[in-house]
From TrEMBL:
Residues covered by region (Disordered): 379-403
A molecular function GO annotation: hydrolase activity
PANTHER family on file: COCE_NOND FAMILY, PUTATIVE (AFU_ORTHOLOGUE AFUA_7G00600)-RELATED, PEPTIDASE S9 PROLYL OLIGOPEPTIDASE
Domain Xaa-Pro dipeptidyl-peptidase C-terminal: 310-544
Pfam families with a match to the protein in the record: Peptidase_S15, PepX_C
Keywords: Hydrolase
InterPro entries: AB_hydrolase_fold, CocE/Ser_esterase, Galactose-bd-like_sf, Xaa-Pro-like_dom, Xaa-Pro_dipept_C, Xaa-Pro_dipeptidyl-ppase/CocE
Full protein name: CocE/NonD family hydrolase
C-alpha cells in the first residue's frame, strides 16, 4: 500500500507504542443509519479490515464526533489489529437525530444499537465496549442487559452514576459542568468559530463563576439558557427520581463481562470509579485496574488506555494473552515515582493510621492534648479559591498551595519533618469535630506534601455540605463529620512533612455555599460563616490515612 496513505497509521503506532498492525488496509463505512424505537436515527461509522471476515466488534458511543483525529484514534488502532469498530454519535450530536439529553437516554439508545447490530451481515455476534469519560458511562448503561454478546469492556476515567459526581458531598461541580456545557455547545462549530468561542470563554467563565444566581451561568458563558444545565441545578436534592435514568450503579454487580478500569489520581471521577470496581470485586469478579498520576485530560492517559484496552480485548476476544499483565492492579506511586503491581486495591498490608490535629497547628499520630479550638471566617463574597486537584482544565493536578494556605480562611495542620518514608496508598478521609455560626455551610479538606523548601503540593481532597440535621449535633453542640477525600498513592519522603488543610470551599470547582438556605439555582444572598475546628481529647479531629508497610 502507498506509504503516504499509511503514514498516519505508522505514526499512531509509534505515538501509542502499539504492537505491529496485522493490516493497514482499513475500510471506513460512513454514516450508517441506526434507528431508535422512537423513530430517531443515530449515525455511526464502521472501521474494518478490507476482507469479508466477521470479526469481533468494538462498540464506541460518543457525543464528541466520529471523524477527524478523534475518529481515527478510536477506530484505526483496533481495526488494524483484529477487530471491526463501530463509532456511533450519541443522540443530538454530529448528525445523529434527536436532542442531546445528557446521560438520560443512553441505556435505551445503547440497547437499540445492540439490537440493530444483530441484524447486520458483517456482525460476528461478539462485542466489546471502549472509551473514556462519557464514552465509559454509556458502557455501564448497557453492560448488564447486553447479555452474553458482551465479551469485554474498558470503562476509563468514568463512573456508572453521574449524579454522584455532579453533587460531591452534596455540593455542585460548578467548574466541570459549566465547562462541559460550553464544550458540547461549541464543538460542532467550524474551526475558526470554535477557536474564537474558546478564546472568548476565558473571560466569560470568570464572569459566570463570579455571578449569582447560578441559573444565569450558562447565559453568561453561551448567551442563552441550556435546558440540561438548568435541570442539573433544579434536580439537586438527594434521591430526586429525575436522575434514575442516569444511574446504573445498581446494575454494576450483575455485570459478568471482564472489565478493565483505567483512572487517574487527579481525575474528577476516581472515587466513584473505584466504587464500581469494588462492586465487581464484591460480586466475585476479577476486574483489572490501572491508576496513573493523571488528571481527566492528561495525554499519557489516552495512550495508556489504547494500549491496555487492546491487550484486554485481544485476551478476552481473540485468545491472545501475550500482552496482558498477570497482576490485576497496576498503580503509579507518586513521590516514589514508580509503577507497581498488586493483587488488589487497596494493596495487601495497608493499615489505617490517624494523624490527629494538634495545638499550634500541629499534626501527629498521638491524640491531641487539651487545647483551644481554631477559628476562621468563610465569606462567600470572597470564596476560598480552588487550586489544582481534580479539574477539567489546564490548572488540574498537583499545584503549589502556599498562596492558598496563606489566606485567613484556610487552616493548616502539619507534621514535623518525617524521619522515614511513609507511603499512603488507598482511601483517605478526615474525621473532624466542627461548629459553624450557620446551619448551612461546607467543609473542604485537602492532604498535601510539604517538601524541605516549604512547597506544599496537593495530593487529594474532598468536600461536605452541611444542612440542619445532617449530621445531628452532639450534646456539646459540635458536629462530628467525615469528609471522604479522593484516594491516593503517594510516598511522603523522609524530610518532607504531611499537611492537612481545612477550609470551607474550593471555588469555582465547587459552587460556593451562600449560607442563606436558598435554592442552588436562585441563591443570591451571601452570608459569612464563622467556623470552628476542635482538637482535644473529647473531640480528636484527625486525617485517616491508608499506610502501607
Amino acid at each position: 500500500m502507498n506509504d503516504l496513505k499509511t503514514l498516519p497509521s505508522h505514526l499512531l503506532e509509534w505515538l501509542l507504542d502499539l504492537p505491529p498492525a496485522e493490516t493497514r488496509d482499513i475500510v471506513v463505512e460512513r454514516d450508517l443509519r441506526v434507528p431508535m424505537p422512537d423513530g430517531t436515527v443515530l449515525l455511526a461509522d464502521r472501521h474494518a479490515p478490507r476482507d469479508d471476515k466477521k470479526r469481533p466488534l468494538i462498540l464506541v458511543r460518543s457525543p464528541y464526533g466520529r471523524t477527524g483525529p478523534l475518529g481515527v484514534m478510536l477506530g484505526r488502532p483496533f481495526a488494524e489489529r483484529g477487530f471491526s469498530v463501530l463509532v456511533q454519535s450519541c443522540r443530538g450530536t454530529f448528525g445523529s437525530g434527536g436532542v442531546l439529553d445528557p446521560f438520560r437516554t443512553e441505556k435505551d439508545d445503547g440497547l437499540a444499537t445492540l439490537a440493530w447490530l444483530k441484524e447486520q451481515p458483517w456482525f460476528s455476534g461478539e462485542i466489546a465496549t471502549f472509551g473514556p469519560s462519557y464514552l465509559g458511562f454509556v458502557q455501564w448503561a448497557i453492560a448488564r442487559d447486553a447479555g452474553s454478546m458482551l465479551k469485554a469492556m474498558s470503562p476509563q476515567i468514568t463512573l456508572s452514576n453521574f449524579r454522584d459526581f455532579k453533587y460531591p458531598g452534596e455540593t455542585f461541580s460548578l467548574d466541570a459542568m459549566l465547562r462541559w456545557t460550553h464544550l458540547v455547545h461549541i464543538q460542532e462549530k467550524p474551526l475558526h468559530e470554535h477557536l474564537l468561542a474558546r478564546f472568548a470563554a476565558r473571560r466569560s467563565f470568570k464572569r459566570a463563576f463570579a455571578h449569582l444566581p447560578l441559573a444565569d451561568a450558562d447565559r453568561v458563558v453561551l448567551g442563552h439558557r441550556v435546558g440540561f444545565f438548568q435541570d442539573w441545578l433544579e434536580h439537586n436534592a438527594p434521591g430526586d427520581p429525575w436522575w434514575t435514568p442516569a444511574n446504573h450503579s445498581a446494575a454494576v454487580a450483575e455485570v459478568t463481562a471482564p472489565a478493565l478500569f483505567i483512572g487517574g489520581f487527579y481525575d474528577v471521577f476516581l472515587p466513584w470509579q473505584l466504587r464500581d470496581y469494588a462492586a465487581l470485586v464484591a460480586a466475585g469478579q476479577t476486574p483489572y485496574l490501572t491508576i496513573g498520576p493523571w488528571s481527566h485530560t492528561s495525554r499519557p492517559l489516552f495512550k495508556e488506555s489504547i494500549r491496555e484496552s487492546l491487550a484486554w480485548f485481544r485476551a478476552h476476544m481473540l485468545g491472545d494473552r501475550s500482552r496482558l499483565r498477570e497482576a490485576p492492579v497496576r498503580i503509579y506511586v507518586m513521590g516514589a515515582d514508580e509503577w507497581r503491581e498488586y493483587p488488589s486495591w487497596p494493596p495487601p498490608g495497608v493499615r489505617t493510621e490517624r494523624y490527629h490535629l494538634q495545638p499550634n497547628r500541629g499534626l501527629a499520630p498521638n491524640p491531641p492534648a487539651v487545647s483551644s479550638p481554631d477559628h476562621y471566617r468563610y465569606d462567600p463574597a470572597d470564596p476560598t479559591p480552588s487550586v489544582g486537584g481534580a479539574l477539567l482544565n489546564e490548572e488540574s493536578g498537583p499545584q503549589d498551595n502556599r498562596a492558598l494556605e496563606a489566606r485567613r480562611d484556610v487552616l493548616t495542620y502539619t507534621t514535623p519533618p518525617l524521619d522515614r518514608h511513609i507511603e499512603v496508598i488507598g482511601p483517605v478521609s478526615a474525621e473532624l469535630f466542627v461548629q459553624s455560626s450557620l446551619a448551612h455551610t461546607d467543609f473542604f479538606v485537602r492532604l498535601c506534601d510539604v517538601d524541605p523548601s516549604g512547597r506544599s503540593v496537593n495530593l487529594c481532597d474532598g468536600i461536605l455540605r452541611l444542612i440542619p440535621g445532617r449530621p445531628a449535633p452532639r450534646p456539646d453542640g459540635t458536629l462530628a463529620i467525615t469528609v471522604e477525600l479522593w484516594p491516593t498513592a503517594h510516598r511522603f519522603r523522609r524530610g518532607h512533612r504531611i499537611r492537612l488543610q481545612v477550609s470551607s470551599g474550593a471555588h469555582p470547582r465547587f459552587a460556593r455555599n451562600p449560607g442563606s438556605d436558598e435554592p442552588l439555582a436562585t441563591a443570591t444572598q451571601l452570608v459569612p460563616a464563622d467556623q470552628t475546628v476542635h482538637h482535644d481529647p473529647a473531640r480528636p479531629s484527625a486525617i485517616v490515612l491508608s499506610v502501607l508497610g
